[in-house]
Design goal:
Helices cover 40% and strands 16% of the residues. The chain has a seven-stranded mixed β-sheet with strand order 12-11-10-13-14-16-15, sandwiched between helices. The longest helix is centred in the N-terminal third of the chain and has 20 residues. With 468 residues, it is of the alpha/beta class. β15 and β16 form a beta hairpin. The chain has three domains: 75 residues; 161 residues, Transferase(Phosphotransferase), domain 1; 206 residues, 3-Layer(aba) Sandwich (Rossmann fold), CATH 3.40.50.
């Protein structure tokens, strides 16, 4: 029998550590969490919030599943698998804002039911399509009158401060958050905020004031100050105050070219219709469970894939304006579509403790099919990634897919080359097809523009003759 393996991203909470047993997800409920778990279970809290779609479902299973040598377990729970785990440094402003509001609303509702959350980790919020869900059952604790919100600083660092960085400074949070997995500290954010913003009561209360207290404690090596009891009404008021503030936040960034690309691209109507038809046929013939859409922009082709039979799409793009629009489209049109931020030449790596705590993009790979439409030239030309290497990486992401190759005489590529030397002797269609043929079978092709843009559907050996 396969042994259960501890998930390397859950070691920080030994009383609620997660294990993997094959494709199953298990959670240990240790002694420190058991009484709180029993209270939430027996009061119907877990079932109530699970039925509302706010909390991951859980059922008690045989405790021996995680190993007879671990005597610290009181219960073992099994959770349904989250199809794709994403991290806050991969979320757009809109996704991070939704996750923050979701966390606060969940905290508020739990408080009314006599419970609270023991932490405010953004990693405990995941997305099923565009819908947030809370995954850490053991952080639900009984509320005790007078308790202070001990996770307030964590909420600020992982939710509020990253949002303020974009809303007040015009700087996306993603690269900073990825470089510091605990979030953005109030001390650092306070140094960046414009002086006029620091005069705001909200900023003074949640950023400047806490940063000064933290800096003073660090200088004097003082212990944490004892806080006065916080009445439940004041606790709820603090949460509602943050809710109203975050609801009002909008990104301070000018509109980007790519967020309007769907309306102003260089395709003719005929070429656009042909490209849509090619993607529609590919998806309807292969019926993938999960599609990865690289360079998803605002989600037009992700929507086509879903309409053609894909069950869900994870989109990736580096343009913040386009991603925010993609998320709004996902919500308004009720699509099972999760658009995430990524740099194609520098995707999320393995990192955190022992470089295993947060998995890199390749280790989370779950796509049955890939769309890489007008994408490969964006990493091969401005980022100097060899064409052969780029094709190898793309084919390795999914066993089948559609890749669009854009020629050098295309206006987009000519613009990329306008201010730099053309050192890309092997960036051409024959080299692209040779690289793809070496790794997969080309199923179909279509010339799709006057400039020779080429659409290619491929399949690897592992999927030949296999359709869902």
């Amino acid at each position: 029998m396969t042994a259960a393996v501890a998930d390397p991203g859950s070691f920080r909470d030994p009383a609620g550590q997660v294990y993997r047993l094959g494709s199953r997800v298990l959670r240990k409920v240790g002694a420190k969490a058991a009484t709180h778990y029993e209270a939430a279970r027996d009061r119907g809290i877990l079932r109530k919030y699970s039925d509302r779609g706010l909390l991951v479902d859980s059922k008690e299973v045989d405790a021996g599943l995680i190993g007879v040598s671990d005597n610290s377990r009181h219960y073992v729970l099994e959770h349904p698998v989250i199809p794709f785990i994403s991290y806050p440094y991969e979320w757009s402003f809109a996704l991070l804002k939704e996750a923050a509001l979701f966390h606060l609303r969940l905290q508020h509702d739990l408080l009314l039911d006599g419970f609270t959350l023991s932490d405010a980790s953004a990693y405990n919020v995941q997305f099923l399509g565009n819908r947030p869900i809370y995954i850490d059952v053991t952080s639900i604790r009984r509320y005790e009158e007078g308790s202070y919100w001990l996770a307030h600083n964590q909420f600020c660092e992982q939710f509020l401060n990253p949002l303020l960085l974009r809303a007040y400074c015009g700087v996306p949070h993603n690269d900073w958050f990825r470089g510091r997995l605990e979030g953005i500290s109030s001390i650092e954010l306070s140094r960046l905020l414009p002086a006029r913003k620091k005069l705001s009561f909200r900023v003074l209360s949640h950023v400047v004031g806490p940063s000064r207290l933290q800096a003073r404690r660090e200088r004097k090596h003082a212990s944490v100050a004892v806080r006065k009891p916080l009445p439940q009404a004041a606790y709820a008021g603090l949460i509602n105050h943050l809710l109203r503030w975050i609801e009002s936040l909008e990104p301070e960034v000018a509109g980007s070219y790519w967020q309007n690309y769907e309306a102003f691209h260089s395709y003719s109507d005929r070429e656009e219709a042909s490209k849509r038809d090619f993607v529609d046929r590919f998806v309807s013939e292969t019926l993938p469970d999960t599609v990865w859409d690289l360079g998803c922009n605002t989600g037009a082709y992700s929507k086509i894939a879903l309409g053609a039979g894909a069950k869900k799409v994870v989109g990736f793009d580096s343009d913040h304006g386009a991603l925010d629009r993609a998320y709004r489209r996902s919500c308004s049109e009720r699509l099972d579509f999760l658009p995430l931020y990524f740099d194609g030449a520098n995707p999320s790596p393995d990192q955190g403790w022992s470089q295993t705590e947060r998995m890199g993009l390749s280790r989370r790979r779950n796509a049955d099919a890939l769309l890489a439409l007008a994408f490969i030239h964006h990493i091969s030309i401005p980022r100097n990634v060899p064409l052969d290497s780029a094709v190898q990486w793309l084919v390795g992401l999914a066993p089948r897919g559609v890749i669009e190759f854009v020629q050098k005489d295309d206006p987009t590529v000519r613009e990329m080359l306008a201010l730099r030397e053309d050192v890309f002797d092997y960036y051409d269609e024959p080299s692209f097809l040779k690289a793809l043929n070496a790794r997969a079978r080309i199923v179909s092709t279509r010339k799709n523009s006057e400039n020779g843009r080429l659409l290619v559907a491929y399949q690897t050996d592992s999927t030949l003759g296999c359709h869902r």
